[in-house]
Write a structure and sequence with these properties.
The chain has 15 helices and 12 strands. By secondary structure, the chain is an alpha/beta fold. Strand 4, helix 8 and strand 5 (241-245) form a beta-alpha-beta unit.
Length: 476
């Protein structure tokens, strides 16, 4: 639900920015006829090229604002750096306005209009960012939109960093504790709990079982250089953002960005892309795609709901806790395809497990109902997950969300990087044979998806999912 609220807020501000740009254009064109009044449209011929040009302009503006990072997390950014980005966005928006005016022959868009548009846009975007910062500040001060952060180290620098986090609750960081073998620094202040949640040796195990969004490494550089690289690799395996307190290190795999927390410089390593135009488009596709599919498949879902209920005792919907983004748990929706006490019976069937790795699969599972066998074969049982996509728990495309039982059986940390992206209804595994491939192959396919992700890859997977479902490939 927190991710859903964040997405709603994000789309509100994206729409708000576009409204500001349109308002700036309208004010810049006072005395010029940019938008034909409705009564005139009834009596005059509509200039199709003008309408098309304005539509293209709105799409280009939206793309520019996202591509310049205006909707990325700015928790640690200074307002001066934000102003620089806003000026770039205003300048590019003005260039696009002028270019579209020429390309689509919109005579109302003249050089004077463009010159007036630039400062009005800059003022509007600055106003938008001030409203956004104040809104996020209030949201975070009320305990929402929080990031769980660990500090590795207990020296004076680590405590100074912790004090900066405590002193700025508007950043939305929740300090969950420290990682170190012993407490080596001075006693913490009264606002800091000296909580050692893990030793350095057990750090890998701690990440397996706890929600951690970011890790700040504050170990002495000279004596812990090798250990620091090892810790960053562990975080990379788990898909956790790493921020290094002072000192600059080369990361062999994760792209880095330099930010500040108070007066302390931080180097942040991102195991997967976390913001950007393509990710924004991906979420947009998820929202509209799930809405369209829910409407399209609503008759099938209604019939399935009734038939599952008639076929066997128990609720028609099956709700199960799954592991989602950054190991956050959520309730996954499915049509029930097994007897109502299937989970209680699983322990008795464990010796018959035919799947490799920690997952559980057997052919001719006695718990599957008559109707359940059909909806599994046709993947109708998965349709309620479209509501998970709409909420923001899942995506249309992404690694499949696993039950808690399967997650606890993971024996390699690199496999846990699959939880650094939002889980999905379909992925490379679904179009590559599903239950017909081994667990290790499945995990490697998930890593391949994460490392090679693009919107084109998502579209390709969605297109190939349809024939895979029709064939019932690998369904158990």
């Amino acid at each position: 639900m927190p991710n859903f609220r964040r997405q709603v807020l994000l789309y509100i501000f994206k729409t708000f920015d576009l409204v500001l740009l349109v308002a700036a254009l309208s004010l810049s064109a006072l005395g010029r006829k940019v938008f034909t009044p409705l009564p005139v449209l009834v009596n005059e011929r509509v200039q199709v090229h003008t309408i098309l040009g304005i539509a293209v302009l709105l799409l280009l503006w939206k793309g520019v604002l996202s591509a310049l990072g205006l909707y990325q997390s700015k928790r640690l950014a200074t307002f001066s750096s934000v102003l620089t980005d806003l000026f770039k966005a205003s300048l590019l928006s003005a260039v696009l306005l002028f270019s579209v005016g020429i390309l689509f022959r919109i005579h109302e868009i003249t050089p004077p209009v463009v010159f007036r548009f630039l400062p009005l846009t800059l003022v509007g975007l600055i106003f938008s960012r001030l409203v956004l910062r104040q809104t996020l500040k209030m949201v975070r001060l009320h305990g929402h939109n929080l990031r769980h952060v660990l500090i590795v180290g207990t020296n004076s620098r680590a405590l100074s960093c912790a004090q900066s986090i405590i002193a700025r609750p508007e950043l939305g960081y929740l300090l969950t504790g420290f990682v170190d073998d012993t407490w080596v620094g001075p006693p913490p202040g009264r606002h800091i709990e000296p909580t050692l949640v893990s030793s350095i040796a057990d750090f890998r195990s701690y990440l397996r079982d706890h929600v951690v969004d970011e890790v700040i490494i504050a170990l002495p550089i000279k004596s812990f250089y090798d250990r620091e690289n090892e810790l960053r690799q562990i975080c990379h395996d788990h898909g956790v953002i790493v921020r290094v307190l002072t000192g600059f290190f080369e990361s062999p795999q994760s792209p880095a960005a330099v930010t500040r927390l108070g007066s302390d410089p931080l180097v942040s390593y991102y195991p997967v892309p976390s913001e950007g135009l393509e990710l924004g488009v991906k979420r947009l596709i998820d929202i509209f795609g799930s809405l369209v599919l829910i409407v399209l498949f609503s008759p099938i879902m209604l019939v399935a709901l009734i038939l599952v209920k008639i076929d066997s005792d128990g609720p028609a919907l099956f709700l199960q806790e799954r592991i989602g983004l950054n190991k956050r748990r959520f309730r996954l929706y499915k049509f029930r395809s097994m007897v109502s006490n299937a989970e209680a019976l699983q322990a008795q069937l464990e010796p018959q497990n035919e799947a490799s790795g920690p997952v559980f699969k057997i052919r001719n599972d006695p718990r599957i109902t008559r109707m359940g066998r059909f909806i599994r074969k046709t993947s109708i049982d998965e349709l309620p997950q479209l509501f998970n996509v709409l909420k923001g728990d899942m995506s249309l495309v992404g690694p499949r969300p696993l039950p808690i039982r399967d997650y606890t059986g993971f024996d390699k940390d690199w496999q846990r990087r699959r939880f650094s992206v939002r889980p999905g209804i379909t992925c490379l595994w679904q179009i590559s044979g599903r239950s017909g491939i081994s667990f290790d192959q499945w995990m490697h396919l998930d890593m391949q998806y994460i490392d090679q992700w693009s919107l084109w890859l998502d579209m390709k997977i969605l297109a190939l999912t349809v024939p895979a479902v029709v064939r019932g490939s690998g369904a158990l």
